[in-house]
Structure prediction request, 173 residues.
Amino acid sequence: MVQTLYGILAMSMLALLTLTLNNSIHSNDQEMMMNEISSHVTGMADEIFDQISNLSYDSATLSDQNLVTRDVLMEEETFGTENCQPENNFSGCYVMNDLHGATIEHAVGGITYNMEISLRYVDEDDPTQDSSTPTFSKMAEIRITSPDLYIGSSSNPLTVVLDRLYNYPRVTG
Prediction:
C-alpha cells in the first residue's frame, strides 16, 4: 500500500514537472519571438527617424537661415503632401512636415509591417505636451502594425509606437 502511494506521488510530481517545463519552453519561445519583433521594428523606425533628421525642419528653414520667431513656421494643419513618397527613396520629401500622414509597407523575415508616420508640434520646455501653435520642437511618431502579428485574434493586431523629438537649432537674442 505504501509503495502504491509512493508511486502515485512520484507520478504526480513527474506530471507537475512536465507541465512546468512545457510552460517554461512556451514562455521562452514567446520571449524570443517578441525580441525578434522588437529588433525588426526598432531597426525600421531608426531608418525613418534618421531620414527625418536629414530633412529641413520647415519650409521656412530651407534656405538655411536661422529663425528667431515662430510666426513663419507652417501650421500643423498644413502638414503632409502627396508628393512625398517615402517608399521611393523619400522622393518629393523636402521638409519634415512632408512625411506627416505617410505610410510605408516593409517586409522583414517574412513578416509584413505597416508604418504610419505623424508629426506634431510640442512644447519646447515640456516635449510631453502638444502645442497648439508652431514651436521649434516637433515630435515624430511612427505607429507600426502587422497583419501577420496579433494578440488573440486578427482584429487585434500587435501595435508598436515609437517617437523621437526634433528641435530646430535657432539663434536667440
The helical segments are 2-54.
